[in-house]
Amino acid sequence: MxxxxxxxxxxxxxxxxxxxxxxxxxxQYRHIPSPSIPLSLYWFMGHASDLKVxxxxxxxxxxxxxxxEYLMELEADTVxxxxxxxNTILTLDLNIIPKLLTDRTTFLKRDLMRKNMGWCGKAxxxxxxxxxxxxxxxxxxxxxxxxxxxxxxxxxxxxxxGMNKVAGRLMEVLDRKAESGEVFDIxxxxxxxxxEAISLCGFDWTEDMIKEHGDATLNMARVLVEIFAxxxxxxxxxxxxxxxxxxxxxLYDAVEPMRQIIGKFLKEKKGEAVLKENIVSSIIRAxxxxxxxxxxxxxxxxxxxxxxxxxTTAISMACAVWYLSMNPHVYEKAQVEVxxxxxxxxxxxxxxxxxxxxxxxxxxxxxxxxxxxFSTMRECKNAAAIKGVCFPKGTKFVVPYHNLHVDPRYWxxxxxxxxxxFSPNSIKNIRPYTYMPFSTGPRNCIxxxxxxxxxxxxxxxxxxxxxxxxxxxEEKDIVMMxxxxxxxxxxxxxxxxxxxxGFDL
Length: 505
What we know:
- By secondary structure, the protein is α+β, with helices and mostly antiparallel strands.
- It has helices at 2-27, 48-57, 63-67, 69-74, 97-102, 112-117, 138-147, 153-158, 160-180, 186-202, 207-233, 235-239, 245-269, 279-287, 295-326, 328-342, 350-353, 357-370, 401-405, 424-427, 448-465, and strands at residues 78-83, 86-91, 107-109, 119-120, 123-124, 184-185, 376-380, 384-386, 389-391, 396-399, 466-470, 480-482, 486-488, 493-498.
- The protein has a 5-stranded mixed β-sheet with strand order 1-2-10-7-3. Strands 6-14-11 form a 3-stranded antiparallel β-sheet. Strands 4-5 form a two-stranded antiparallel ribbon.
């Protein structure tokens, strides 16, 4: 009888002690605005209960889009959220962000990325040491140092033949679409184009490899993004061995066969790595920096570059085409520039690309409004103070880029598509850290120059030969679905016409 009384008493004391522990930890953030936590038996969950309701209410949004609502509701640049034992800071404060993104010794990338994207069931996603998810170890720093030179101008110049070939293939596909007059989702076609560009120009794939493995590679990339996005939204159920079995199997079926194919390809390329200047050779050299890394780690980094080079670039190109279709005056001005740069040639060379200044302005404005990367996360390795604001060791940070990109304090009419914001006269007035489509600091996007080059060439070729008409002009904005990246929810349906055939804007 006494034992039966002791057990509930012990459980009660444990519950009280745990809540007291959380209270003392959360009290360290009392100087930061925070939504109230209702006093109840579930107080220890913090804001998790409210977030769960918001996730169900907004199934199309990712986690960062949902938590960003608190910034507007509290009318604050920095907000504290307690989620079980995690203490998270959501910030748009331009006094705090520079330190977070440039000091990699104090502010590491959150290990949440590795926990949620390293493995899922028996499927390996991005492992433990991948360039994307490693919090910031010395192995990561060495790999990044070795890979950075892979994206110099000298390498980008070598990609031009491949880029022009990929653009030529896209023109053939679009010409058939113009012939048929059908409505189609241009984002799907540009997925294939982006895959061909990264594979042919960066990974040294052959045409036969693209034909044989292109569809399976696209499927792997889409499934990886889809399943890991679900895992971020519902991490607990994915940890239960008998839960989410269909999603785990779908991921394994999409990823494992391609990992084997990619592994075999990388082993064959190892001997050439010292001789060639391309992305795949850089990945191989970087993964030779430590005996702790093996072929599986090499595949992890390969997949990071594959998905970053395909998924995000394709989304950005598709959104740019959509904005062009909705802004005839921008379309016409861009066509004039393209006609002047191409002249009577069918292709342009590397030095011509820098002359596509208005096209670059269009790309930058597209990335401001619909950048595929929505945010970044950091974790405080040691207690730190930034501009007089103290943050305890272990504090988690979220920086939602997109909120800054459309903040009316920094942008006039922020929801309006206006490439002139990035004209030579205007761009110098953009405040630092208010525009970060590729992030900034030591963990900025390593392939941004490759992506910009690809987008400029593809968009220039489309503008030169076709007029793109939005199939749903009544839709005044692109509805985006939040995953790990954000992409158009319903695709981007267009109709396309050849130029100089009696049809113009």
